[in-house]
């Protein structure tokens, strides 16, 4: 919540007297630090949030800081308290406030926790800014103080946070940079990809999605998008084969298989079938398909069913049998024809 300047003065007074009235039982060791999430490239008209997290602050009972920035580029719109300062309950004096108009390009945040913070870390607050015009600005923290009743002069040691430079660019430039970042990531992919390239493929796709969703890029803007799509398809095939192979490898040996393992055997076969039907895998892509076939035969035997021979085995036997049968019949018929001819010739 944003309080008016008079309430900021009241909060400052409360912060001063709270040191004497509410001693803390737990104190932080080492410097209090702040983590600021607010960097990157933005465009005019965007609203962006600066998240401020306080760390190593257990037992501290208040503090303040000023934040300076280029007022022509950034305009603070709102301040939302985080979870570090608890809500007021009973006689506890817990307040946090921000004066977003302390000066042109400068704001101030104050907070007080009556009985000292029970938290070691938490979000102090979030400042919402509007981007006004193109340019660069580096927000700077100053006047940063955190009160600690157990510290010398009741002021805790504090490490002043730094904020990266904020760059505001036009939409066309931002779009072009986003597309190039995606294209560079795609170009760096190996050909062909391996299972080790999964993260690189995901990162490249994420950059494509960012360029499309944030900057309005379309598929035709990327010169090498097909390479990424091919890499994704090949990786999906490799991963499907890898998953099936692992499922087969996890099966007990044929000698130890029982009917309790039937579901696992069926699941392994389902993974093999999915890899083949969905990703174009073939039998030779799998490392241990014979093991799966043997397991399936064992389950069939345990169930009193006729085992399925290896693919092509029975068919080959049947074809060979038919061949020899036909050959035998042909020889027999030729022999009878020859005998009849000899009789007619009186031989």
What can be said about the biggest beta sheet? 4 strands, antiparallel
Report the uncertain regions: 1-5, 7-28, 311-317
Strand content: 15-25%
The number of distinct helices, counting runs of at least 4 residues, comes to: 7
What series of H and E elements makes up the topology? Answer: HEEEEEEEEEEEHHHHHH
The total count of strands amounts to 11
CA-to-CA gap between the ends?
A: 124 Å
Count of separate structural domains: 2
Q: Which strand order spans the largest sheet, edge to edge or round the barrel?
A: 1-3-8-5
> For the record, what CATH class of the largest domain applies?
Mainly Beta
Structural class: alpha+beta
| Portion in helices | 40-55%
Please, could you describe this protein's structure?
Helices cover 41% and strands 21% of the residues. The protein is of the alpha+beta class and 347 residues long. It folds into two domains: 5-168, Sandwich (Immunoglobulin-like); 172-302, no CATH class. The strands form three sheets. It has a four-stranded antiparallel sheet, with no helix packed on it. A hairpin with a 2-residue loop joins strand 6 (94-103) and strand 7 (106-113). Helix 2 (171-187) runs antiparallel to helix 3 (198-215), helix 3 (198-215) packs across helix 4 (225-249) and helix 5 packs across helix 6. The longest helix has 32 residues, at 313-344. It is elongated. The termini are far apart.
Which features does this protein show?
four-stranded antiparallel sheet, 2 domains
TL;DR of this structure?
The protein has helices at 5-21, 171-187, 198-215, 225-249, 262-279, 289-302, 313-344; strands at residues 33-37, 40-42, 47-55, 62-68, 74-81, 94-103, 106-113, 122-131, 135-137, 140-147, 166-168.
